[in-house]
Design goal:
This protein is an alpha+beta fold. The chain has a domain at 47-117: Thrombin, subunit H. The chain is built from 3 helices and 6 strands, in the order ααβββββαβ. The strands form 2 sheets. It has a 4-stranded antiparallel beta sheet with strand order 1-2-3-4, with no helix packed on it. Strands 5-6 form a two-stranded antiparallel sheet. The protein starts with a helix and ends in a 25-residue tail after the last strand. 9% of the residues are buried. Residues 123-142 are annotated as: Disordered.
Length: 142
Amino acid sequence: MHRRITRPLAALACTLLAAAGALTAQQRPAEAAVADEFQQVTLAKGVAETGEPMTLAVLPDRSVLHTSRDGTLRLTDAAGTTKVAGKLDVYSHDEEGLQGIGVDPGFSSNRFVYLYYAPKLTTPAATPPGTERQPTSLRTTG
């Protein structure tokens, strides 16, 4: 008796799945409306204008500060002109370097920008011998 119920239920489930697939294939998703005040603008392009990009912050005048891992801080104005705004001496081995930027909430009056970076200290420029990551294998028991 169990087999007698299982086959019709499986056939019904397959039919419902096929019908659901056909219905969703016919429905087209609505295209997202783009607000008039938004536009897509290429701010900086290529290694000379971006370096190895990490983060960005938009300023009140619509210019953009963007960081590069090597310690370079660039400013791209609303017209798309990019220039170097500053350069920090950073430790940039592995995942280090100039990592983040934040604009102070009172930037319009105090002009404060905060940078998160790894300072260059007496750290080795490369991975010290014997500290490389080694492949690890684990064995589970039980």
